[in-house]
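Problem 12. The chain below contains 557 residues. Write out its predicted structure in token notation.
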Amino acid sequence: MAFPGTPRSISHRNGQRDEQLNPFSRIASPKGQAPPIQGQLILCESRLNLSGHSLQVLVILLKMGHPWEKLMRKCAWRCWLSIAILGFAAGCGRFPGATTSGGGSSPPSTQFSLTIRDTPPSNVSVLAFGIQVTGAVLQPGNVSLLSSGNSVQLELTQLQTEATLLSSLSVPAGNYTSLTVTFANPRLTILNSANSAIAGCPAGAVCQFSPSISPLSTTFSTGPNFPLTLLQGVPVGFELDLDLNGIIQTDLSLNLSAANAVNLTQLPAAQANSQLADLNDVRGTVQSFTTNQFTMVQSNGTSLTVSVNSSTVFVFPSSSCPANNFSCVAVGQLLETDLSLLGNGSLVAKLVELTQPPAVGAQIIQGTIVSLSGSPIITSLQLVAHDVQPNSSNVSTGNLVTVNVQNTATFQVATRNFTFPSGISFASQADLITGQEIQVRVVGAVTPGTPPSFTTDQVILVPSQVTALVFTINLGAASFTINGLQPFFTNAIPTPINQITEQTSSQTIFENLATSNLTSLAAGNQVSVEGWFFNTPSAPTPATMVTFKVRGRSILH
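Solution.
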């Protein structure tokens, strides 16, 4: 292999191109022959790519009857001087992480994807945790992993069982020694179940505040992840895990430098067109669509372009679109999707479900029910918002809001093509229970106040995420119970919840466990579960979750 700065001569004769790495090989001509005046040139060339910047030196001499010896000396002197200059610059280390390439091609690069999830706290009832990721930078070279340098707003309580995409970009191939991730603007919503005030939050109250955070960034520079070599065309993915047990201190301040507070794990290797990561529960409003592809915008402003294929499952009510395929997708729809992040950074939909049809001016708020009011019929509820579509100044993520439920409100379940057992229901106000994750449609205007309030005419049950301990296991019934729940459940009004039955099926996903079934569980295991939360007052436990996913925690920590 030639050194990437080797000069070469290119001789053109009657349209024929002849090339050799030896700069002198085509200078001599048979004795007694005069060199042609036209159509023949010598190109002495040197290329070197340094840290993504392509430098090229060309020396072009037209053979115009000069003595061959003089041409040879000129070409050799200029070409080798250019190489010496470039070689000296690279050798002095002025361009760390330099890579080389020949010809006029782009600098070598690869796809780098970064996802994030969280480990929830066990010592405080965190109902919402918003934070911005303002930077993710590889060194050397100050290679930013955030698209256009934009920050990404996250709601961490919705990442107990699922990961979300921070970025997927093409970055220069080469050697890297560290990754620094920077955070800002944390917002915490808690239920203070203590007997006294915490951080100014009265006992028994739901409060939202901005905790102090120190330091603002965390750097990964040691094994097993660094130093890191990125090879051209070989996709790489990493996952950040924010452990809220370590980050949240007893005074509710945040410490990113606490032991195991922020962890980085490399994702299993994947080819460019293979799945690198699962991204489920990805919600957004359709902005545009083309053939087999649509673009949707999430509530944090992130725009995602999603492709569909023959394996994509569509869940559209027959009343709105009997075809139940890609032709049902329309601008303005609020969609719930399960996505595959491929090694090349593209997103392919495994499932596309219509949550809300287009409605001019309609605002959809998703959150967790924290209290219910009204007897015998529930007339209002309070929830902590996790997602607001479209984003507005009336209600923000983490806000406590009061929702007045119309008597004629409709109730339905966002099924995600899941099969539900008999004996459960979500059809009226009587089926509401604390802890359910719901979407409500705002009717009219939001009334300012503490908390703000509005009326809804539609309530949709969507999956909740809970982290607790395995209590009992019933292999015959394909179920297990969890306890050790946060005070948010055990102090619930009007019905305290000390245990939850987890009903699994062949569709349930078992993740981060030794086996993909209930046999991998044991009493006392900590797990995060995701599924639809039903009020079951006549069952052995007051609440039953139809379980979409079980994620083991003991293997991670």
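Discussion. Confidence is low (pLDDT under 50) at residues 1-104. Students who got a different answer should revisit the alignment rule from Section 12.3.
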